[in-house]
Design a protein that fits this description.
Elements (H helix, E strand, L loop, with lengths): L3 E5 L2 E7 L15 E7 L1 H12 L3 E8 L2 H12 L3 E8 L6 E6 L5 E6 L21 E7 L8 H12 L3 E6 L8 H4 L8 E2 L3 H8 L4 H10 L4 E5 L5 E5 L3 E4 L12 H15 L3 H15 L12 H10 L11
Parallel strand pairs: 1-4, 1-8, 2-6, 4-5, 8-9, 9-10
Antiparallel strand pairs: 2-3, 6-7, 11-12, 12-13
Helix pairs in contact: 1-7, 5-6, 7-8, 8-9
Length: about 325
Amino acid sequence: MSEVVCVGILVADIVAKPVSQYPEKGRLVLVDTIELHTGGCASNTAVSLAKIGVDTAVVGKVGRDAFGDFVIDTLRKQGVNIKWIKRDEEALTSATQVFVHPDGERSFIHYIGANANFREEDVDISVFEGTRIVHYAGYFVLSSLDGEPCARLLKKAKEFGAFISLDTVWDSKGRWMSLLEPVLPYLDLIIPSIEEARMITGKEKPREIARVFLDKGVGMVVLKMGSKGSYVRTKDEEIYMPKFEVTPVDAVGAGDAFAAGFITGLLKGWDLEMTAKFANAVGALCVTAIGATTGVRSLEETLKFMESTPLAKESIDLG
């Protein structure tokens, strides 16, 4: 079985760059490039892990359409185990139109598609047998699985002895903690963005946020803070890791690449400081190329990058 199983959203990303304004009705705006990439948190994290050199499988759902064929074929070519991906007979494959602004930030138009039909019964729990880490990627947009069904699924994964990690996305429906709370007791690691974590907990500072999650039974809290780096907190340890200094080209997938880097550090048995630094490095490399995983490098290349690239000299108020 694979070392890591990524469960969650699979998406086809149509990436346009650079986009500085939305065209007026009936008008055409030219861009330098439009490219098709795999996207979605589970796909992005799985491909990043595979590129680093980690044996990884994906569990999710795509439509029986050209985008679905593209997602599955691309994952296979990247070395990801696609045996557990289901095909939906009704909905099309989830897709996102990504507008990359000149500074690397992004805006999105999204179609949920087959991800909305991804259910508990679509997951063959035998995929968890022998797996070291199960990473649930895309919480808040898996409408048929988030909440109690996810809690049951993660409970089964823990019974197989897996370490449980969970990543979130923005909850456009505003449910936040009410939807997330059932799964928290099963999480060894939660790895949201700082913006999402603020909405979930109602707290502002990293220490305050982490305390909420730890009090609800989560083993480790990792906050992705973009240009401010990352923050790690367990019951006994606290680490702030600044970002690496790179010139951003496209921030699509950076959070998922970071998650892949952090998971890699856990698999390698590194201490949390080295793990956070490596995760920052994987995320930094990700933003140097267009696409959610294009910039991700091998383990050896990433370690060399860490040796030759400075960390930002900054500190933040942790609260």
